[in-house]
Specification:
The chain is of the alpha/beta class. The protein is about 30% helix and about 25% strand. The strands form 6 sheets. It has a 4-stranded mixed beta sheet with strand order 22-23-1-24, with helices on one face. The longest helix is centred in the middle third of the chain and has 14 residues. It is elongated. Bound molecules: uridine-diphosphate-N-acetylglucosamine. The site of uridine-diphosphate-N-acetylglucosamine (UD1) has 22 residues, from helix 1, helix 5 and helix 6.
Length: about 425
């Protein structure tokens, strides 16, 4: 298991590039199952969750050439299952359920694992598919779904679920008749998937809003050089790193589109953020000012940035109230940040962060993907040396983060056992 050894205290400066969004790449890769032939996808990020999805598609019979421009040939799919061994580390593997069922009339998908940040059920995915005419059974930890041909339906989500919306858009795109998704997730990654499906011949209207209408078509063409949107969470993480280290970072070729809520809070916290033709320029302020946040579905403040914002607030002037509204168990980074000297109290889904002057290096343990990013941030700021164990969590969703940090002047070393 890899770990990072970080000596903190250096303001990070320089220019970096960010690749495609993990949360758009995974559904778009799953969408290749809706067609037969060679799919070409551009700006595919190189990270562990993406490699897990390659493994899953290969298991089903896909031929794959990996890379930034990836080729996924779905002409010989012969297994319609996602086994536990492959999906236990990645909840997003549930994204193959909708496409398999719509295209092949059957799917056997292990119940998802992934980050241990709460119960994270998939009841809304299953209820939607049932409404479209699928039979669904749960057997020994597997979802077994069958349908002759899915039929369009009106589906109302009690919660706007991101992967649930994506599963149903994919299923509905080749179902018979029209589907309406109400209270759908509005995340940019949902819109990116829909744009990709439209480029394959799907008829989808309203993606990016809370009501999405899909007119089912008989078949879709393979993906022809569709480029995935940049990863807004990685961009926002590096913006926050500029803030916590008092540095100056340019994120090349990226825009602040999709980052409104985060950049507003970071500006209020004292960061200077500028959109230029080169990209986003972020400069840490002289001091960090405490600000409150509450996580919300898009366009609100993303839960995937909560831990990183908390790291920033741990060294702010004043007290910050952080309310986590999406996942019930997403404060596991708190105990580790406290080991580094942060002053944080948790009561239910509310964390009260009293800013301290500085953090101190310590050995800490990464517990989930975004929590690991917050620990890296804290270590980059802290006095002395930190060792961050279980970096595999970070590698799931950050593309070569250590190399990018070294390019910005960080003192960080990856050690493998
Ligand atoms: C996706 C993102 C993840 C992000 C999250 C919220 C991917 C691959 N992952 O996860 O990075 O943190 O959105 O922005 O895109 N829920 C139910 N029943 C369901 C489904 C969800 O009750 O069937 C609840 C969840 O417990 C949670 C809320 O709905 O409280 C939102 O979860 P959801 O949007 O589904 O998260 P994911 O799609 O798993």
């Amino acid at each position: 298991m890899d770990r990072f050894i970080i000596r903190g205290g250096k303001p990070l400066r320089g220019v970096i590039e960010i690749g495609g969004a993990k949360n758009a790449a995974l559904p778009i890769m799953a969408a290749t199952l809706l067609s037969s032939g060679v799919n070409r996808i551009c700006r595919v990020p190189d990270m562990k969750d993406v490699r897990t999805m390659y493994g899953l598609l290969r298991h089903m019979g896909a031929q794959i050439i990996e890379g930034g421009s990836a080729e996924i040939d779905t002409g010989r799919i012969n297994k319609y299952e996602a086994p536990y061994e492959l999906v236990k580390t990645m909840r997003a593997s549930v994204l193959v359920l909708g496409p398999l069922l719509a295209r092949y009339g059957q799917a056997r998908v292990s119940l998802p694992g992934g980050c241990a940040i709460g119960a994270r059920p998939i009841d809304l995915h299953l209820a939607g598919l049932q409404k479209m005419g699928s039979k669904i059974e749960l057997e020994a930890g597997y979802v077994i779904a069958k349908a002759k041909r899915l039929k369009g339906a009106v589906i109302h989500f009690d919660n706007p679920t991101v992967t649930g919306t994506e599963n149903l858009i994919m299923a509905a795109s080749i179902a018979k008749g029209n589907t309406v998704l109400e209270n759908a997730a509005m995340e940019p990654e949902v819109k990116d998937l829909a744009d990709c499906l439209v480029s394959m011949g799907a008829k989808i209207y309203g993606a990016g809003t809370s009501i999405i209408e899909i007119e089912g078509v008989d078949c879709l063409a393979p993906i022809d050089n569709y480029a995935i949107i940049p990863d807004r969470i990685q961009i926002a993480t590096f913006m926050t790193i500029a803030g916590i280290t008092g540095g100056k970072i340019t994120i090349k070729g990226c825009s602040l589109e999709h980052l409104e809520a985060v950049s507003e809070k970071l500006r209020e916290a004292g960061l200077q953020i500028e959109q230029t033709t080169e990209g986003i320029k972020v400069k840490g302020g002289r001091e960090i000012i405490a600000r409150d946040i509450k996580t919300m579905p898009y366009p609100g403040f993303p839960t995937d940035m909560q831990a990183q914002f908390m790291a920033l607030m741990s060294v702010a002037r004043g007290t910050s109230i952080i309310r986590e509204n999406i996942f019930e168990n997403r404060f596991m980074h708190v105990a580790e940040l406290k080991r580094m000297g942060a002053d944080i109290n948790v009561d239910g889904n509310v964390a009260t962060v009293r800013g301290v002057k500085n953090l101190k290096g310590a050995p800490v343990m990464a517990t989930d993907l975004r929590a690991s990013a917050s620990l890296v941030m804290a270590a980059l700021r802290a006095e002395g040396e930190s060792v961050i164990h279980r970096i595999y969590h970070l590698d799931r969703g950050y593309e070569r983060m250590d190399e990018k940090l070294i390019a910005l002047g960080a003192n960080i070393k990856r050690v493998s056992d």
